[in-house]
Design goal:
about 20% helix; alpha+beta
C-alpha cells in the first residue's frame, strides 16, 4: 500500500504506516515468473475474485508449479523461497508489467474513536521490461466517508479532517516519480539498480543484518516494515528468494499456508504482531508476488490488495 513508497505516497501521505504496508505494499508487488519451466512448473490461472468492498477484477495468467509442501513455519518459508531462485522473467522486451493496487483504510481522526473514516483508492502502474525506461503511474482520486460520527460533529470538536488525495497520472524513467536520485539508486521503497540487489543476494543472514540495522533495533515489526519496502514488483528472483529467507529470522514471525486475501485469493501469510500492532503480507505461493499488505493498530487498519498482468503498452490493461 508508499511512497507506494515513492510510487503511491500521494495516496495516503497523512498515514505513515501505509507506506510500509500494501504499497511498498505496498507498494505492495509483482515479480518475474511467467514463462513455463517444464521441470519445475505447470501453468496456473489465478483469477482475483472481486470482493464487494474492494472491487478488484484483474485476471492474471501465471505459469508455475505449486510446491506440494505446506508452508507453515519460518523453516518452511526458507525451503519454499529456494523454489523462486531460477524463475524466468514474466515480462519480455516491449512488454509492461501491470500492477493494480486497491487500498482500503479505516482510521480514527486524531485518534478519537468517536470519529472514524474509511478511505478507498485505486492505483495502477505500468512497469517496462527494462526498469530504466519510462513507467506510468495512475492513481484515482481518494473517496473518504465517515463510518463513525459525522464531519459536522468532528469539526465542532476541533478534529482535523484530512483532505482526500487527488487523482494523478504521471510518467517517469525507472519509476522515479518523486524525482529523487537516479536510476542507479537503492531499492528501498522503489526499484533499485541491479548492483543494489547483487550486493544483497545469496546471503540471508547478511541481508537480515542490513534490515535490522536499518530498523535501528531487533524489533520484529520494524524489521518486517523494512523488508516490506524491498518487496518491489520487479526485483530479481534470486534476490526475492534471499529476502524471504532473511525474513524467516524476524522475531515473532508467524507463517500460515492458505492465508486468504480480502478479495478471496489464497497465499502464504507472513505476520508479526506486538502490543496490538500487526503487520502482514500475503504472497503468491507460486511466484512470491505480494497479493496483500495489511497494517493494524489501535486507531488504524489499512489493507492493500495487489493484482497483476502483462500488457504491450502503458496505455492498455490486461484483458
Amino acid at each position: 500500500m508508499s511512497d507506494l513508497d515513492t510510487r503511491l505516497a500521494d495516496l495516503n501521505n497523512d498515514v505513515p504506516a501505509m507506506t510500509d504496508e500494501a504499497f511498498a505494499a505496498g507498494r505492495t508487488r509483482l515479480h518475474e515468473a511467467m514463462t513455463t519451466r517444464p521441470r519445475r512448473r505447470l501453468p496456473v490461472l489465478v483469477a482475483a475474485a472481486a470482493a464487494a468492498a474492494l472491487a478488484v477484477t484483474t485476471t492474471v495468467l501465471v505459469t508455475g508449479e505449486i510446491s506440494p509442501a505446506s508452508v507453515n513455519t519460518p523453516a518452511d518459508l526458507v525451503n519454499w523461497a529456494q523454489t523462486l531462485e531460477d524463475d524466468p522473467p514474466r515480462v519480455g522486451p516491449g512488454q509492461y508489467l501491470y500492477e493494480r493496487i486497491q487500498s482500503t483504510m479505516e482510521r480514527d481522526l486524531d485518534d478519537d474513536p468517536r470519529f472514524r473514516v474509511r478511505s478507498t483508492s485505486t492505483g495502477e502502474q505500468w512497469i517496462p521490461h527494462d526498469y530504466r525506461d519510462e513507467w506510468r503511474l495512475k492513481v484515482g482520486g481518494e473517496n473518504v466517508e465517515f463510518v463513525k460520527g459525522t464531519e459536522t460533529g468532528a469539526k465542532a470538536e476541533g478534529i482535523t479532517i484530512p483532505a482526500p488525495s487527488v487523482a494523478v497520472d504521471m510518467t517517469a524513467k525507472c519509476g522515479n516519480f518523486a524525482a529523487i536520485g537516479s536510476c542507479d539508486g537503492e531499492g528501498w521503497g522503489t526499484t533499485g539498480s541491479p548492483s543494489f540487489y547483487d550486493k544483497l543476494t545469496g546471503d540471508p543472514w547478511r541481508l537480515y543484518a542490513v534490515l535490522r540495522d536499518r530498523a535501528g533495533d531487533s524489533n520484529g515489526l520494524d524489521i518486517f516494515a523494512h523488508a516490506d519496502r524491498l518487496l518491489q514488483p520487479n526485483v530479481p528472483n534470486d534476490f526475492k528468494a534471499t529476502l524471504f529467507q532473511a525474513m524467516s529470522h524476524i522475531p515473532g514471525l508467524t507463517v500460515t499456508d492458505d492465508a486468504r486475501t480480502a478479495d478471496g485469493r489464497t497465499g502464504i501469510g507472513l505476520r508479526v504482531e506486538s502490543n496490538g500492532t500487526v503487520r502482514e503480507q500475503i504472497v503468491d505461493r507460486v511466484t512470491g508476488d505480494l497479493l496483500q499488505g495489511r497494517f493494524k493498530d489501535a486507531h488504524t487498519e489499512a489493507i492493500g490488495t495487489v493484482t497483476y498482468g502483462v500488457t504491450d503498452s502503458p496505455q492498455s490493461r490486461p484483458n
